[in-house]
Amino acid sequence: MNATFWLTHVLLERGYRIENDVVSGTKTECAHLLLKDGRIAKILPASEAITDGLPQFDARRHLALPSLIEKHCHLDKTLLGDRWRAVTPAKTIFDRLEAEKEVLPSLKTSTQTRAEKLLDLYSKTGVTHVRTHVDIYPEAGLGNLDEVQKALRTFEGKLSSEIVAFPQHGLLRTQAKGLVREALRQGASLVGGVDPATVDGDIEASLHEMVDIAVEGHAGIDLHLHDADHLGLFTMRRLAQLTIEAGLQGKVAISHAFGLGDATPAQAEAMAEQLAEAGIAIITSVPINRKFPPVGLLRRKGVSVAVGCDNIFDVWSPFGNADLLERAGRLAEASGWSDERSLAQTLGFITGGRTPLHPEGERMWPQVGDEANLVLVEASCSAEAVARRPKRVATMFRGNIVEGVL
What are the TM regions of this chain, as residue ranges (predicted)? Predict the structure, then answer.
């Protein structure tokens, strides 16, 4: 595609409609966007004629939203592209781990091929960035990392990515420290971990090792924390303390954080304040079958929160379709956010915090200078997009149409 062109007749949000002191809808306008070198260079009212002779692509009054960001997936685990299989029951997490170790190497399809199937789904649903965890353990070595990196390279022009070196079988339990360090040297940018108490059996040693590896490798941390109740909260408190001591504020995330969902309101508020002080983000898949972190409280306390899809048709779960708008809608529904403003602001949990409108109604996106990463949808506003999961018409990444046709 040309480095400079016009995206014409784009529907943009411009404010909330207020009636009787209540947000009753969203005001929109049609605009032309000049895209240059992957960024938005100019925004004109659609009433103005374009006379510069540059190429034009007609958005046909489809709504533009910031493109979506997947903060928690497992490209190396998916069974997409292979035959259907339901989940085999397992009594413990360790049984499930062993089952996965047997199933994945036995598949006729390669990890790269299956990962590409999932990446294709993400791109079609409007995703332009993924954070993927990649299993690192002695039997697999860095094979999964290599396969996932090959898959990501085939999508370099469609989305950006980051990789978590994930010692799923236990950082200490499988003595995976050396492999994780090597994974960082070979392109991973975050240190993973899982349940320092339940899986590794030593909260202090496991957390210290994760932090040490991250500091040594100039990396971030993304910890899978399923441990519930007080055990989960204690682990979070210790990680928050260690994060501050190591100067890793803003580089650490906790995925799942079920203990926050189990906490009393007072406990959750205190924990949220600690997380905010440490700059630790929370990532949730909005599970249906258990309590999840109180996202509204976390947001009010200044904690960065993201929603991710997690498992998509794999040994752990037969469900999932890579649609982050569906996950956002699930979050809004579970949280009781059914009014226009709440639905619209929910979009920020799947876009890295970007929403077309500020909660007070001023336009925040798009702005001149923004990277031209957007998705065009068949919806009248963000609130409708979150509630109704509309068709994605086109996905744009760095100014290029990477999915759909205009």
Answer: none
**Structural domain boundaries, residue 31:** 4-67+356-404
Domain membership flag for residue 116: yes
SS (H, E, C) 351-372: CCCCCCECCCCCECCCCCCCEC
pTM of whole model > 0.90? yes
- Domain check: are 253 and 393 in the same one? no
Q: Could you tell me the pLDDT band of residue 3, with boundaries at 50, 70 and 90?
A: confident
Tokens matching residue 27: 């005001």
* Mean pLDDT of the chain, nearest integer: 97
The single residue listed with the structure tokens 């062109």 is 5
How does pLDDT run across 140-166, given as a tens digit for each residue?
Answer: 999 999 999 999 999 999 999 999 999
Q: Are 296 and 379 part of one and the same domain?
A: no
Residue with tokens 């411009």, as numbered in its chain: 14
Q: Say which residues have a Cβ less than 8 Å from residue 32's Cβ, sequence separation at least 6.
A: 6, 7, 8, 9, 10, 43, 44, 45, 46, 48, 50
Query: Do 134 and 221 belong to one domain?
Result: yes
Query: What is the spatial distance between Cα 240 and Cα 275, in angstroms, rounded to a whole number?
Result: 6
CATH label of the domain that carries residue 305? 3.20.20.140
